[in-house]
Every structure is written in structure tokens, then in C-alpha cells.
Amino acid sequence: MRGAVARGLAEPRHAVDLLTDALAYAEKTGHPLLVGMARTVRGFVLLEEGDAVAAEADARAVLAVVEPHDVLDTAQVAPRVLLAQARRAAGDLDAAVHLIGEVADLVDATPLLFARRQALAVHAEILLAAGRTAEALDLARLAVDTPAEDVRSRVTACRVLARALYASGRCAEATEVARAAVREAYATQQMSERAAAQAVLTEVGC
To answer: Mapping DSSP to helix (H, G, I), strand (E, B) and coil, where does residue 30 land?
Structure first.
């Protein structure tokens, strides 16, 4: 999907345009999985651009489409994670914790179109925001240890682990892991994770 490629190249506005075009095509075909893919990826881009309202709308629209069609639970992981992140971004941390908790049972199997490592890392990140540092640290370690090929989930897991270590008073370990996140972010031509990785290194560096 060209929209996903544009997202990886740190071209969010172009990604949104491409994904909106892809959504229009998917809606013409009436295929719920294609609609879900386009809306979910667009929602994540919108969230990264700071538009939590639009991101939540995309997440809820995907769930409204896939749930009546008995789509596998593993295909619902990505939009449910998106919804949890959107509620957190909107300041509704209680809802975010509840929603991401509901996702936990779904990621025991490998989610479709979404890395299990990414889901675990987001869960850890939300728990950390809620002040549940010990739980967040355990989940972040699990995320880092979970195999995944994509750059985004590798960097995200390292970023979250670095922040959880820092919150636990383990500054030296946090700095080491944050440096690993930066190395991962620069290891390929995918540029979208570089700024976030650098920001965490600045945050935890000591």
C-alpha cells in the first residue's frame, strides 16, 4: 500500500491523501478487510499528526465495519490499539487503559497486519502513562523480546522500554536502550521513527 510507504518515509500528509484514495476504492469494492486496512493505517497517521479526534473516528468506523462480518479477532487488534491510543491522546487515560487491556487477550495469537510487539509496546506505554511503572516495565521487556521484522515495532518497543527504565530510576540502562532505539531507527531508509527515537534519547540520557 503506497500510503503505508509514504508513512514510513515520514511524509504524513501525502500518506493521508493516498490512504483516503485507497479507502474510496475499498468502499467501492465493499470488502471489509480492505476498508479496515486503509482506515486503520490512516488513523495511525492522523494520530501521529496530533489529530486524535479523526484517528478515533477512523478506529470506530473500522470496528463498526469488521465486527458484523465476524472478522477474526486478530484482525481487530490494530483498530482497537488505535482507539486506545486515541483516547489516551484525548486525555481519557482511564478509557485507554481499559481498551488496551481488552486487546491483551487478542495478541496471544499473531495479529493480522499489525506486529504483536507493537501492541505489547503500546500497552506498556499506556500503563506507564497511568503510573503503573512496574507493569509497564515488564510488558516493555516482553515487547523487546518478541520477534518482529518491521522497523516501527522494534523502535517503539525500545523507546517504551527506555522510558519505563528511566521511570524506574535505571538511568544508565534507559540510556543504553534509547541508543539502541536510535540505531534501529537509522538502520533502514524508513525515516518515520527517527525523530521519536532521538526525542527519547534526549529525555532519558544521563
So the answer is: coil
pTM of the full structure: 0.91
Upper half-sphere CA count for residue 141 (Cβ side, 13 Å): 7
Residue with cell 507493569: 135
Report which DSSP code applies to 132: -
Q: What is the pLDDT of residues 149-201, one digit of tens each?
A: 889 999 999 999 999 999 999 999 999 999 999 999 999 888 999 999 999 99
Cβ-proximal residues to 64 (8 Å cutoff; 6+ apart), any chain? none
Structural contact between residues 155 and 184, judged by C-beta atoms closer than 8 angstroms: yes
**Block residue for cell numbers 514510513:** 8
Contacts (Cβ under 8 Å, ≥6 apart) of 164: 124, 128, 133, 136, 137, 140
Dist. CA 51–CA 39, nearest whole Å: 14
Range of weakest confidence among 33-47, 67-81, 96-110, 116-130: 67-81
Phi/psi region, residue 170 (left: phi>0; alpha: psi -120 to 50; beta: rest), is beta
Q: What is the dihedral of CA 24, 28, 32, 37, to 10 degrees?
A: -30
